[in-house]
Amino acid sequence: MAGASTGAGGGPLAGVRVVELAGIGPGPFAAMLLADLGADVVRIDRPGGAGLAIDPHHDITNRNKRSVIVDLKAEDGAERVLRLVDRADVLIEGYRPGVAERLGVGPDTCHARNPALVYGRMTGWGQKGPLASRAGHDIAYIALTGTLGMIGKPDEPPTVPANLVGDYAGGSLYLVVGVLAALHHARATGAGQVVDAAIVDGTSHLTAMIHGMLAAGGWQDRRGANLLDGGCPFYGTYETADGRYMAVGALEQQFYDEFIDLMDLTGVAPERKDLSRWGELREAVAARFKERTRDAWTAVFEGSDACVAPVLSLREAPGHPHLAARSTFVDHGGITQPAPAPRFSATPTAVRSGPALPGADTAAVARDWGVPELDGPHDSPTKGS
Questions:
Q1: Would you say the pTM of this structure is higher than 0.90?
Q2: pLDDT at 48
Q3: CA separation (Å) from 236 to 143, 213, 220, 230, 330?
C-alpha cells in the first residue's frame, strides 16, 4: 500500500490511493465505486472539463473523490501526473488504445516508476482486436455481444436498457473486480499489472448462463421466446387500470400457485406447463391486471410470496418502504442518490462528500500526497499539441 492519507474515509479500501484520468461513463463510475469503498480517489480533470454535458455539482459519479486539474498536453503535464502515480496503488484511464502512451502516462512509463501499480484500462472494444481503435458507445458494444438482441418483444426492435448493461455492468463492475484482484496480487508479490477491461468482454461474460442454456437446448436464440426474456407469461410485466405496471416473477410452482390464487384465476387460467397455451394464460393474466390500479394490486400482493412487485419510477423508488428502511437511497447535498453498495459489517461505507468540482482539491491533494509542485504554476502547452 502506498500509504494512507487524510483524504481517505471509512470503508474497506481506506488508505488505497487511486489516480483517475478523467473521462466519461464507465471509468468515472468504477472510480466512484472505489471511492465509495473508502479509497482516496484523485481525479485528474483536464482544462475545460470532460465531454459530458452535466453540471459538475450534480455529477454523482464524482462523489467521494477529490479533483485536480492537469493539462496533459503541457510540457510538465505528464510529470505532474507521474508524481502522483509514484504514490498511487491504482490508476484508471478510459482513453482509446495508445492515447495514454502518447500523453506520456502509459503503463510502461508508470510501471518504470511504480512497479506495484495496478493500471486499469477501461474501453469498449478492448486494447486489441480489429475494432480496438474505433469509436463506440454502450449500445454498439452490447449489440455485438448478442446481449442487446435478447432484450425486447419479438415483433419490435430490441429495447435499449439505458447504458446499464454495457457501460456499468459489463464495463465498470468488471474493471473494479479486475483492479481489486490485481491489487491483491500486487500486495502479495509487489508486482503490478495492466487490467484490460473491455465492455464487450464483460457484457459477453454476463451471458454465461444463457449460453449454457442455449447449448443445452433450453434457450431459443430469439427475443420473447424464453423463460427469462418476457416470453413466459409468469415472468414479465403487465399494465394496470391506471396505465402503470406490475412485475411478475412467479417461476417456482409454489410461488406461481400463490400468484394465481391472489389473482383469483384458480380454475380459470390454463395449465402453465402447456406451452401451447401460454398465449391464453398471458391474456387471462393481462385482463385481470387491467381491472385494478397498480397501487391496488400492490396491496393485494403485500406480504405474499407470489413474487410480484410494482414497477416504480426513479423518483418513486426511494420512497418505497423497504428501500427506505434499508436507506438504499440517501440525501447528500440536496441530491437524492443511491447509497454505496454493498455493505460491510466491520468497515461501513458512506457518502462522505459531494461531487468533486474540477480543480477544487489541488492544494489539499498536493499536501496529502506529498507533491507540492502539483499546486505550482503550469508550463504552457507544447507547440503542436
A1: yes
A2: 80
A3: 22, 19, 17, 5, 29
